[in-house]
Design brief:
The chain has 21 helices and 19 strands. It has an 8-stranded parallel sheet with strand order 16-13-10-9-8-19-18-17. It has helices at about 5-10, 30-40, 45-55, 140-150, 195-200, 200-210, 220-235, 245-260, 285-310, 330-335, 365-370, 375-385, 420-435, 450-455, 500-505, 505-515, 520-540, 550-560, 570-575, 600-605, 605-620, and strands at about 15-20, 25, 65, 70-80, 85-90, 95-100, 100-105, 115-120, 155-160, 315-320, 345, 355-360, 390, 400-405, 415, 435-440, 460-465, 490, 565-570. Belongs to the disproportionating enzyme family.
Length: about 625
């Protein structure tokens, strides 16, 4: 790669090389850099084009980031967020302000300390109860929060992403590929808690109750659940005063109304419907989908209130996916903020030697800066409207994302860098206003500066028992929980990893071997799993934890963690061997479809669950 192309790439935050999973330098092909620059509207197709781009005048930054107390130089006038003005130079209040064509983001230095607590990592769809229709719902979330606090002493509840998917079948199962990160998924509504249901005559309630698909399916049938709930909600809608929505909600509801007719991907719609300016959705259907969002907001607020009323120290934390579906509501409504023809993923590593393509379009860093990070502000604010905290999936994406140009495999991509200071400033402004905690998922190959910045800003990183090792020492020995970093949210596993019981039974090896996911020896994988198990059993001995019941022992070990938040999953506590999601698969494995082995009431009655909860609660009191 010639120096001029490299300089142009650097000027636009496009990497020309990176450090791979083996900590070796990997150079990016020049044509890949040219293709990625094109997605940023930078022509680098010829040497002459590169020189023209380098010679083009540089625009001053459109977004300025300050820490509370810092002075913005003048002269000039700032229009404050609250409508007032301030003459420069001046220190500005926390918030989003404007001076000329620039946005000024002023953030607190760091977030408030997080209280020590234990709690659940919940896959909500899996938590079925006698009152839910085929899958867990928002009322189950409220029940779990209340009973976990009152009966088990839990202080935090992390729930899988519940952002909106397209209102079509087949229903998108993955919670990490929503149509919108700004709105909620009506699939999780509790029909019986809708005010119109409570006020309906008994005959209509009976008709609606008869639609319940039941909880006796071995796997969760999303299509059956949505078909039943959509019909029930349609019947109730007939008894509700119809109002036309306004603002951002109207845009989302218009997408939903059009998706019902033309399908879930706007890129495949008739030409006039692809543009919000010329689209012609049915106003009645627009009002219906806006009403569903009002119901979601009410039921999510009920769940949060249940956590508060029961005395949870933290409350309900919601998970934010790294992106959205490329043909979904967000890219339809605010498409100028996205690099629509690019997908993000990960470069090759030991787990995936061909790299990963997540089929999610990235934000354009230049457009975010031009818009004062308003699209990102909307996303964070929408989650925190009904949450006490936010977990940022793949938090390293605030620093850089692996962009894959159109038509290329994941191996032929490169990193594009973002202004992490601005993204973190938005998180701090929104979280401080909501009195919320922020957790970054920094697992895997992540630059040290990511974790360091999280802690410096009062945010938590992630600690998983399987991965807490001294990676710089020979043999990578396990780190005792008492030496883990305090500013972490700790757990035994995650939804993408084997459960505690599954790990002990090497279920993750068996399943991946059956699916042909190993390039090397399967026997070698079993041997590696056995070594890891032996290392953990040895750590139990060093920590004085009895090893007669290893699932309980792992939780007793976790209870010793210095981490301010310690979480387990119902799957881990119940001894479930199947993990919720197996990366690298779609229909080959029942991802996001496995219900808990007991109903919600049974969870609280299970002796093993109560032992686990008692151990974790006792550990938080140390």
């Amino acid at each position: 790669m010639d120096d001029e192309l490299a300089a142009l790439a650097e000027a636009h935050g496009v990497a020309t090389y990176y450090e791979d999973a083996g900590q070796r330098r990997a150079d990016v092909d020049a044509d890949v850099v040219v293709a990625v620059l094109a997605q940023l509207d930078v022509d680098a197709s010829t040497p002459e084009a590169v020189r023209r781009a380098l010679d083009a005048p540089k625009r001053p930054p459109r977004t300025v980031v300050l820490t509370e107390g810092e002075v913005l130089d003048g002269p000039g006038t700032v229009r404050l967020e609250d409508g007032g003005t301030r003459e420069l130079p001046a220190a500005l209040p926390v918030g989003y302000h404007r001076t000329g064509d620039r946005t000024v983001i002023v953030a607190p230095a760091r977030l408030d300390p997080v209280p020590r607590a234990w709690g659940w990592m919940l896959q909500l769809y899996a938590a079925r109860s006698t009152g839910s229709w085929g899958m867990g719902d928002f009322a189950d979330l409220a029940t779990l929060a209340r009973r976990s606090a009152e009966e088990l002493g839990a202080g935090v509840l992390l729930v899988n992403p519940v952002q909106a998917v397209s209102p079509t079948t087949p229903v998108e199962r993955s919670p990490y590929s929503p149509a919108s990160r700004r709105y909620a998924n009506p699939l999780y509504l509790r029909v019986a808690d809708v005010p119109a249901y409570r006020d309906a005559p008994s005959e209509l309630r009976a008709e609606i109750d008869a639609l319940n698909p039941g909880n006796d399916t071995e796997l969760i049938d999303y299509d059956a659940v949505w078909t039943a709930k959509a019909r029930a909600l349609e019947l109730l809608w007939q008894r509700v005063e119809h109002r036309a929505p306004e603002g951002e909600l109207e845009g989302f509801a218009r997408f939903c109304a059009l998706a019902e007719v033309h399908g879930p991907d706007w890129r495949e719609w008739p030409e006039e419907q692809r543009d919000p300016a010329t689209a012609t959705p049915d106003p009645e259907r627009v009002a219906f989908h806006a009403w569903l969002q009002e119901l979601c907001e009410r039921q999510l607020d009920d769940a949060r209130r249940a956590a508060h009323d029961a005395g949870m120290a933290v409350g309900v934390v919601h998970d934010l996916p790294v992106g959205v579906h490329p043909g979904g509501a967000d890219t339809w409504a605010v498409r100028d903020a996205f690099a629509a023809d690019v997908t993000v993923g990960a470069p090759p590593d030991a787990f995936s030697q061909l790299g990963q393509d997540w089929n999610l379009p990235p934000w354009r860093p230049d457009r975010l800066a031009e818009q004062g990070y308003e699209p990102f502000r909307q996303v964070v604010r929408s989650v925190l409207r009904h949450a006490d905290g936010i977990r940022i999936d793949h938090v390293a994406g605030l620093w850089r994302l692996w962009w894959i140009p159109p038509g290329e495999p994941p191996t032929r991509g490169t990193y594009v860098h973002y202004d992490a200071d601005a993204m973190l400033a938005v998180l701090k402004v929104e979280a401080s206003r909501a009195n919320a905690v922020v957790v970054g998922e920094d697992l895997g190959t992540v630059e040290p500066k990511v974790t360091e910045a999280l802690h410096r800003n009062g945010m938590l990183s992630s600690a998983v028992l399987w991965f807490q090792r001294e990676w710089e020492l020979p043999g990578h020995p396990l780190i005792p929980p008492g030496k883990w970093t305090a500013s972490t949210m700790a757990s035994i596993s995650t939804h993408d990893l084997p459960t505690a019981a599954g790990f002990l039974a090497a279920e993750h090896v068996r399943v991946r071997a059956e699916l042909g996911q190993f390039e090397g020896s399967v026997d070698g994988e079993y041997e590696a799993a056995a070594r890891e198990r032996a290392e953990l059993v040895e750590l139990l001995g060093q920590e004085g934890v009895p090893a007669d019941d290893l699932v309980a022992a792992f939780h007793a070990l976790l209870a010793k963690a210095r981490s301010v938040l310690v979480l387990t999953s119902p799957q881990d506590a119940l001894g479930e061997t199947r993990q919720p999601n197996l990366p690298g698969t779609t229909d080959q494995y029942p991802n996001w479809r496995i219900p808990l082995p007991v109903a919600l009431d049974g969870l609280f009655e299970d002796p093993g669950v109560r032992r686990v909860a008692a151990a974790l609660a006792a550990g938080r009191g140390r």
